[in-house]
Structures are given as C-alpha cells and as structure tokens.
Design brief:
- This protein has helices at residues 7-18, 21-33, 71-95, 100-133.
- The chain is an all-alpha fold and 147 residues long.
- It has one domain.
- Helix 2 crosses helix 4 and helix 3 (71-95) packs antiparallel against helix 4 (100-133).
- The structure holds zinc ion.
- Residues 37, 39-40, 43, 56, 58-59, 61 line the site of zinc ion (ZN).
C-alpha cells in the first residue's frame, strides 16, 4: 500500500519530530516560568494572585489532574526556599561577617515571605514537570499549527 505524502505532510511530521527530547523540556520549562498552560503554551494558569483557573482558557485541559495534585508543588517551593537559606545563611555569616541577630531575623523573614512569592511558579513548575513526565494529550510544540 502506498501512502501519498505531500510536502505539507512532511513539514508537519518534521515539526512533530523536532518537538521531542531536549527541545520539549526547554519548551515546557519556558511555559512554566511564564505561568502558561504546559499543553498549549498560551492559556494563563492564574486568574488572581493565588487563584488558578480550573481549566486552561485556551485548550480546556484541567490543571488539577486529581485531588491533591498540587501537593507536589510544595516540594519545589520548600526545596528552593531551603536551598537558598542553607547556602545564603552560612555564606553571609562566615564570608561576609553579617551579625547573627539581624541575619537570623532576615532569614526568618525570608523563609516566611519567599514561599508566598514563589507559590505561583512552584505550581507552574510542578505542572510543567508533570506534563514532561506524564504528558496529557494535545501538547503542542513551539511552532506547531493550531488544530
Ligand atoms: Zn492550554
């Protein structure tokens, strides 16, 4: 059986083939950092400061795939907060000789405030990670045409 393959089909296949591996990873990371839907890359994740859309306004995928889905974002948020504090505290104390009391108060303020500022990105990064490891159908590459 012979399948007719037009030039347009070949271009479409090439675009699909290019959107794998490393390129897909960087695309998903970019979408996460821009707080965009990991599947289509266009729909915004948030409609308020801490309020997410239930579904993507553009492609309609459900962001919270199952109850408790976003618990995973806590690992990202807590992990980055802890990492920054664990590196910055001894660095400021021993290298730059920052007095202990203001350093302690500054660290306390940091570990309370930073997770609030990072909340949106930690959820977005979690969504991107989940899409990377367990893709939902309909993911579009950077340059693919809309269906
Ligand atoms: Zn979308």
């Amino acid at each position: 059986m012979t399948v007719a393959c037009t030039l347009q089909d070949r271009v479409r296949h090439a675009e699909r083939d290019d959107y794998t591996g490393e390129m897909r990873f960087w695309t998903l990371l970019k979408r996460s950092l821009l707080l965009r839907c990991p599947v289509c890359g266009e729909g915004p994740l948030f409609c308020g400061l801490f309020v997410m859309h239930e579904r993507c306004p553009t492609c309609g995928i459900k962001f919270e795939r199952e109850p408790g889905f976003f618990l995973g974002s806590i690992y990202i948020n807590y992990g980055l907060t802890s990492l920054i504090a664990a590196v910055a505290y001894p660095l400021l104390l021993f290298r730059y000789r920052v007095p202990e009391t203001p350093l302690m108060l500054g660290s306390l303020a940091f570990i309370l405030v930073f997770p609030l500022f990072f909340f949106r990105h930690s959820r977005s990064l979690w969504l991107g990670f989940d899409q990377w490891r367990d893709p939902q159908e309909g993911e579009r590459g950077e340059h693919s045409q809309r269906p």
